[in-house]
Amino acid sequence: MRRRLATAAAAAVLLLAGCTSTEPMAARPVRPVPSFEDRSNHDGTSTPVADPIYPGYGNPALDVLHYGLTLSWDPQSRALTGKAAIRLRAVVAVPSIRLDFSPAYTLGGATVDDTPAAARLDGGDLVVDRALPAGAVATLVVGYAGTPAPVPMPSHRGDIEPLGLTVTDGGELWTMQEPYGASTWYPANDQPSDKALYDIAVTVPEGWAGIASGTPAGVQGNTFRYTATTPVASYLTTLAAGRYTKTELTGPHGLPVQLWTRTGVDDSGRLAALRRVPEYLQWLEDRFGRYPFPSAGVVVVPSRSAMETQQMVTVGGDVLRDAVVASSVLVHELAHQWFGDAVGPATWQDVWLNEGWASYIEQLYNGKGDPGAMERWERGARAQDADLRAKLGPPGHPRADSFAENNVYVCPALLLHELHKALGDAGFFALGRAWAAANAGTARDRAAFTAFVNRQTGRDFTALIDAWLDSPTTPS
Hints:
Elements: H1 5-15, E1 62-74, E2 79-90, E3 97-100, E4 105-112, E5 115-116, E6 119-122, E7 125-128, E8 137-146, E9 164-167, E10 173-176, E11 195-203, E12 209-212, E13 215-220, E14 223-233, E15 239-242, E16 244-250, E17 256-262, H2 268-274, H3 277-288, E18 296-301, E19 306-307, E20 313-316, H4 323-335, E21 343-345, H5 352-366, H6 373-392, H7 407-438, E22 442-444, H8 446-457, H9 462-470
């Protein structure tokens, strides 16, 4: 997720003249980097972990393997009608199936493995009265209808907006939902550790478009289909419905790229900013390896922020007004496709693992071309780091009421800068490529990252990583 625009603009101005690195190449041999193609096909299996920051969301006793979502939006009645077919695995024996789901909906009946099952809404949970033994795999199908209602975001950010599916005054739909807004439009195990496969079909009025995360899978009449064959965390899904214009581009190695702009709203300048997406993807691939998904895209919505939703980045129209800010934001969100989407955090304790990488890569891109820019950035960032640690605490221990504030962006970006200086360009970019590719489709924590860094580099960076993530003051 992107930090507030004022900070982005200031950073872009500060770093326009930066560079990737002036450090010498690492002397020790660089270990081989796995590729995304080395991975076997995923079945959606995850290792769910109870989230310590937002324990009210997610159910670590269940592992969702696949969501099949059939949705229909009526802007006149403002009714979202849905059917969710959810294939799940009981990690341990459970007395009932419990998933996160908004109380704004009315249930239309449920089955488990084609057998009727009693289902009810209990606060923010969908509860289905069907016990499952440990290891059992079952398919829950539930129908629902209602008017979407977002939930408050637990943060003090300057671009604060409600989380989840939002209805505009004109009856259009859009969503940004990090950390737990997915359950405002479908029953979800709404925690980052449970990644699943998706098939989404959304039916909209004549002349409208339905846009969702995943790979476009065709349009039949007014029904738009998308599929995700690489596991997706619930917060990384997206949905938009409205009057849109589609622009199709080609990215690196023939990668299909779809741009969705609001018809009659987004001007040529915004589209021009988006047309640079293939250029940004090529720059990222040159450093961090092949883009990890079958397609890429951007959908523009009426927001002040942006979000790294998987394969279909969600960007607020205001972000694209300034070309410099647009470039910075788009590189940040596209970098997340490697760092945060392909491999993400097991819990929100480690949101720094997403934002540190994307923030540092953003600075590298903004600063390309001037050998002194990163040194200037480091001086300014260290001063900011000291203030952030005093106000918000260290990045390895985020506060529940201060989600995704600048301490989890700036502070871990400085950590990565220290690794970059120690490893040089060859070692650092090899580390980034290897981390994203070797762990694609999974959720990881600090311990896994530290062990990987030490193994990949052949050096022990444990003390450095711990200091930057835990210290109440800026490490020397």
